[in-house]
Amino acid sequence: MIIAVASGKGGTGKTTVATNLALVLAREREIQFLDCDVEEPNAHLFLKPELESSEPVHIPVPQVDLERCTYCGICAEVCAFNAIMVGQETVLVFEPLCHGCGGCAYFCPEKAIKEIDRPIGLLEKGAAGEIAFVHGKLNPGEALSPPLISAVKQAIDPAALAIVDASPGASCPVVEALRGSDYCILVTEPTPFGLNDLAIAVELLKKLHIPGGVIINRSMGGEGEAGVEQYCRRENIPILLRMPWDRELAALYARGEPAVEHLPAWRDIFTGLAGQILSEREEAR
Ligand code: SF4
Ligand code: SF4
Predict the structure, then answer these.
(1) Which of 32, 47, 145, 192 is least surrounded by CB atoms within 10 angstroms?
(2) Cα 107 to chain centroid, rounded
């Protein structure tokens, strides 16, 4: 089973939820944690895994042999990302734009294109106690994160319950992280901005046919929260948990300490959340 944790916007407490949930679940099950927020992975700050391996992840980009090239322009026509341009006596490859699809090499009539590896980031694996840990670290300045997210997800062990920490938003990296998930927790905050981004994330879940529920972090009642509640009722999405603002929780967060390891009340709350999601999933089967 794969449970993803996502949010329409950054800073909602998504990683707090994902890491604490993994820690309570790990008491009873084999758990794998996959940090797919590869632009800013920070789950390791809370889970503190011992990393056992680190390997570069590449994408294939074209290299043109100008001795064979006839400057026919087919490669540029084929490329949907404007990553290759053919001039009168030159072919330019814009590597940061290249998605490594291989289309130009496939269609080149002169077989003048070979593919070379371009590193985009690191795939690191290890263990945080009983939790198998995997994360991706995108190279600084690199824009193309989906292939690295895909590499992180290829490490999913079907025998374990996988917790996927997705990046915030609803763009391609989030789609890549959520694809194939059995359930998704959307973490939001009770503000008009939070609601706006939650609605976008909910539409994404619908398109991906992934069931989900909402956690309202920094719950404080009021108009903002009423708006989120009304929206969830209208969309028939369960509110799984309301997390009130808690000074102790915030202090632990600032020190990179998981709440469930220090605050029994929060351990009970996350244990209840885990039980609720798992029993709902069992019933849905
Ligand atoms: S398709 Fe091949 S031969 Fe044609 S311009 Fe591109 S690299 Fe050159
Ligand atoms: S590999 Fe794909 S994205 Fe990259 S230049 Fe070739 S056609 Fe364009």
Answers:
(1) 192
(2) 33
Rounded Cα distance, 188 and 8, in Å: 7
All domains in the chain, ordered by first residue: 2-57+129-284 (3.40.50.300), 66-111 (3.30.70.20)
Q: What is the residue with the minimal CA distance to atom 4 of ligand 1?
A: 72
Name the average pLDDT for the chain: 94
Q: Is the CB of 108 under 6 A from ligand 1?
A: yes
CB 117 within 8 A of CB 55: no
DSSP helix/strand/coil, 261: helix
Distances (CA, A) of 53 to 124, 125, 131, 174: 6, 5, 15, 25
Residues 6+ positions from 194 with CB-CB distance below 8 Å: 8, 9, 12, 188, 224, 228
Quickly tell me which residue has 């995108």 as its tokens.
138
Residue 112 CA, ligand 2 centroid: distance in Å = 14
**Ligand 2 atom with least separation from CA of 105:** 6
Of 214, 212, 203, whose CA–CA distance to 170 is shortest?
203
Please list the helix, strand and coil fractions of the chain in percent, rounded to the nearest 5, in that order: 40, 30, 35
Residue of the CA atom closest to atom 6 of ligand 1: 75
| CA–CA gap between residue 191 and residue 225 (Å, rounded) | 7
Please say if the pLDDT value at position 222 is more than 90: no
Q: Give the model confidence (pLDDT) of 80-117 as tens digits.
A: 999 999 999 999 999 999 999 999 999 999 999 999 99
Please name the residue whose Cα sits nearest to atom 5 of ligand 1: 71
C-alpha to C-alpha distance for 42 and 126, rounded to whole angstroms: 15
